């Protein structure tokens, strides 16, 4: 099968321009997913990598684990400690998800958020930007 294209068409759906200004290449954003996966038992710097990638992201997700481990992320000389919240939630433009495979201790989640909100303005409005899967495991269910 062949695709025919007019000579004025531009690849990647970009609009054709007749401007005399030099062409500036725009990245083809499209639908991209970046996964940060730790291959060791921690301390690889995943939290900082997620924080850096979140600067250009719309969504950050946490998909497994519990609050037994954590990430420390330093932004503008402020240390944020995350155990349940996805570390990319520091970016105020990001919607954060806690997915199916995460074990949530709800009192711990609210305590973590409160401690980090007190440290700086980056976490303000976190509760409006966090979505928690209804298939997460609640810690209370596991111990009863």
Automatic annotation (TrEMBL):
Q: Does the keyword Ligase apply?
A: yes
| Amino acids binding Mg(2+) | 43, 70
Q: Which InterPro entries match?
A: Adenylosuccin_syn_GTP-bd, Adenylosuccinate_synth_dom1, Adenylosuccinate_synthetase, P-loop_NTPase
What keywords tag this UniProt record?
A: Cytoplasm, GTP-binding, Ligase, Magnesium, Metal-binding, Nucleotide-binding, Purine biosynthesis
According to the UniProt record, where is the region Disordered? Answer: 1-26
Per the record, the pathway is: Purine metabolism; AMP biosynthesis via de novo pathway; AMP from IMP: step 1/2
Which cofactors are named for this entry? Mg(2+)
GO MF annotations in UniProt: adenylosuccinate synthase activity; GTP binding; magnesium ion binding
The family database entries (HAMAP family) matched by this protein are listed as: Adenylosucc_synth (MF_00011)
Which family is it part of? Belongs to the adenylosuccinate synthetase family.
According to UniProt, the name of this protein is: Adenylosuccinate synthetase
Provide the organism lineage as a comma list: Eukaryota, Metazoa, Chordata, Craniata, Vertebrata
